[in-house]
Write a structure and sequence with these properties.
This protein has 202 residues and is an alpha/beta fold. 42% of the residues lie in helices and 21% in strands. It contains six helices and eight strands, in the order ααββββαβαβαββα. Strands 1-8-7-4-5-6 form a six-stranded mixed sheet. A two-stranded antiparallel ribbon has the order 2-3. It is globular and about 40 Å long. The chain starts with a helix and ends with a helix.
Length: 202
């Protein structure tokens, strides 16, 4: 009889634990309501932004280090508290050359305490060549961060350039776009502003 009572107690505790874990997952501010929010953003897309694919569930972002433009160590967590548009590029990437001025314009329009465009050159990109690349296209407001061993790119399953990833204020990937896009468009700005507003409200 004692063994039966013990078994019932353990079964009850296990059920309670499972329910508690489920409750915590539902209440997690980084994932709660994510499907509804991303569906709303997806409905806003027009033109190039139709290529921006929103995830039904936010994806954790790795904290793998990269080399900053100043030569130090940076991590994506350094930007937590901001919505960031993370762009993977390279000096040899022709579509990147076309897209970068539009990312620069987006940074000029919306960059600040709540948002930043973060550019990360992945693979073998020498700093002088990166600087020439930006000088040639008249871009001066984007960082010269580097991912020389492609560690961040691999962790984030980036297999083609350019790839641009939208990350919310809690540090979760909510959408990505492969290929170039007009990030300076009115539609792109409207989507980013909506993401900033929703992300700040969590």
């Amino acid at each position: 009889m004692k063994m039966k009572r013990s078994a019932l107690v353990y079964t009850g505790l296990a059920a309670f634990a499972i329910a508690a874990v489920g409750f915590v997952a539902i209440r997690n501010p980084a994932t709660a309501g994510a499907g509804l929010e991303t569906a709303q953003f997806a409905q806003m897309r027009e033109g190039d932004m139709l290529k921006l694919n929103f995830h039904a569930t936010p994806k954790p972002v790795p904290d793998t280090p990269f080399i900053t433009g100043e030569g130090g160590e940076g991590r994506l967590s350094d930007y937590q508290g901001k919505v960031i548009l993370l762009n993977f590029w390279a000096t040899w990437c022709a579509p990147c050359r076309k897209e970068m001025p539009m990312l620069s314009q987006l940074q000029s329009d919306l960059g600040g305490d709540s948002f930043a465009v973060v550019t990360l050159a992945t693979g073998r990109n020498m700093v002088p060549a990166m600087q020439r690349f930006l000088d040639d296209i008249g871009v001066s407001n984007l960082p010269l961060h580097r991912d020389p061993k492609q560690l961040v790119a691999r962790e984030m399953a980036v297999f083609a350039l350019p790839t641009t990833i939208l990350i919310d204020m809690q540090g979760y990937e909510i959408a990505r776009l492969q290929g170039e896009a007009d990030w300076s468009s009115e539609n792109a700005r409207a989507i980013i502003k909506a993401v900033i507003g929703k992300s700040a409200a969590r």
